[in-house]
Amino acid sequence: MEGDYAYLGAMSQGLVILDVSNKNDVRFVSQIIPDINFPSPNPNPSEKAKINARGMALRDGVLYLCYDADGLRVIDVSDKGNPRETGRYINGAVELMAYNNVALNGNLAYVSIDYCGLEILDISDTANIAQVSWWNPWESDHPLDWYNCAGHVNEIVLHDELDLAFLSSGDSELSVVDVSDPSQPRLAGSFGEPKNLQGTWGVEIHQRQVFLTYVRSFAPPFGPYPSNWAGIKLLEWDFIVSVEENRDLSRLPQTPLLYQNYPNPFLSGAKSGSSGNPSTEIRFSLPATAQVALKIYNLVGQEVRTLLNRRFEAGQHQVVWDGRDDAGKQLASGVYFLRMVAAKGNKSTEFVQVRKMLFVQ
Question: Which domains does the chain have, with CATH numbers?
């Protein structure tokens, strides 16, 4: 929507502009179907039905339209009755790259690309769009079985203040990518596991909440991934944010180091005299890139929470625990053990450290 106009990504019918000034009498204004002969001339007629207009972003009379299998298109819509295509871009590394959605921030466009992750583009010159970086977690720059890919990125939302991109990742549910350095995007957090039969399509954020919409989907070869549940999940995400605070490697320890959590003990709002939720900050340092798992156990050795399990670069990092288990249930008062495992890729190089924490309800 923009004022009295609505813009519709109408699949095979391209972009449709509607006059919605009178909600009881919506009127057709214009339509543009971008050239389907890009990037390859004379496409197979049987493939034309797969070339569809999807998500878009609009700014200053310029609309950025995602076309699955046909790249990102730039449409001048300053004249509503005569939209014109003025620019186009596609990553040529994969034969079919399904561009699904786009978000804008300054001179950068952040584009979600189905099984190909996230592409960051320089759009300062819309006639000559250039790639800044490509976050490609599923290594789709080689021949790929689309139906068996672990992720299918659909929608994207940017958190401008924290430089995070939230991606609904289909079979992988949610991926949160740190884009503070646009040239080196990296995974900052995630939710869900591939093959759990719950797949997402939409994502929205509000403050520290994430709303995920789930869809039912057929299993291959009739759909990209099986999903047997449709609905909405509400997530809170404070604890998944990782902040890299120190890139001065000369000041880092020679081995991975897990610091004592602070505060410890940490108290519920009632105990501390605060109306806020209980939380404690956990910090660790790495002298080199490593796979890090942070897990919390109760006194009898049962695992109650996985805070994170992913790769981190060298530096200092932090994560916040809110006193809840993996199901979101507030845990009882008591002693808990925080266990960090850092590995360079094989068990012979694992580093394990444990800290004791006290939570008081």
Answer: 5-237 (2.130.10.10), 249-360 (2.60.40.4070)
